[in-house]
Specification:
Elements: H1 3-16, H2 23-42, H3 61-69, E1 75-84, H4 88-94, E2 98-105, E3 114-121, H5 122-132, E4 136-138, H6 143-154
Antiparallel strand pairs: 1-2, 1-4, 2-3
Helix pairs in contact: 2-3
Length: 166
């Protein structure tokens, strides 16, 4: 893998603000970086990176860039950002004890990563919000991973909204 070319593409993308023209090449480098990093971790290198679950779902693009640059993984924290539901017709039909939105991260850049969160019971939304105050990972995790950790650590199962078949 040509790390210098990868970093050059990242620089061009940031400079021009037009990443689409580099998308295929960047994705190829990203996949190569994931494979090389997995191999190095299995070989006992990179103690800090070994704290992460490096697989297809848990190694984000920013993680790949940091590894190529030779920097350590970033500690990530999450917070709930409530966004609804706010549609009055929906609320009238389904009740007002539902919440949805996104998880925002502090991923160490001026722009946070956003993870969409589907509709769940409001009481579960609040419980997740409080639990996230102390939750941290190395590298950004998927919603499924975060929910699994939440349910395992708290013993609480999130009640997700499912459309009624009327």
């Amino acid at each position: 893998m040509n790390k210098e070319k990868f970093l050059n593409l990242i620089g061009q993308c940031k400079l021009t603000g037009v990443c689409e023209m580099f998308e295929d090449e960047l994705f190829e480098f990203y996949n190569q970086a994931k494979l090389e990093l997995k191999k190095e971790i299995l070989d006992g290198l990179h103690e800090e990176w070994a704290k992460m679950e490096v697989n297809d779902y848990c190694l984000g693009f920013e993680d790949a860039i940091m590894w190529v640059r030779g920097t350590e993984p970033v500690e990530v924290r999450y917070r709930c950002n409530w966004m609804g539901p706010v549609n009055l017709k929906w609320t009238k039909k389904n009740g007002d004890d539902w919440s949805a939105g996104r998880l925002d991260t502090n991923y160490g850049s001026p722009y946070c990563e956003e993870i969409g969160v589907p509709i769940m019971k409001t009481v579960d939304w609040y419980a997740l919000s409080i639990w996230l105050d102390t939750y941290k990972t190395y590298g950004i995790k998927t919603l499924d991973h975060i929910v699994h950790d939440f349910e395992t650590q708290t013993g609480r199962t999130i009640t997700w909204f499912t459309e009624s078949k009327e």
